[in-house]
Specification:
mainly beta; elongated; 4-stranded antiparallel sheet; about 80 residues
Length: about 80
């Protein structure tokens, strides 16, 4: 998740099998703090676009696939 939560996320791997962008549309944040435990959860609902490559080398186009992305900070 970029520092600006409304910005486009770029999702890639080093082998070139994942090349996606995630465009968030709705954000939901939850923050809890109890004594020494802290949880900060950001969940975004949005759309994935790009391409995936399976183990056989077949390319799978992704266009406007509805999904979620999340960022969790947890301290126990």
């Amino acid at each position: 998740m970029p520092k600006n939560q409304d910005a486009k996320w770029v999702i890639q791997d080093v082998e070139g099998m994942v090349d996606l962008t995630f465009i968030p549309k709705e954000q939901n944040r939850s923050y809890k703090k109890l004594v020494v435990t802290r949880a900060d959860l950001n969940v975004a609902l949005g759309y994935y676009n790009g391409m995936l490559v399976n183990s056989d080398g077949d390319k799978i186009q992704i266009k406007n696939l509805l999904g979620i992305g999340e960022k969790l900070y947890l301290r126990v």
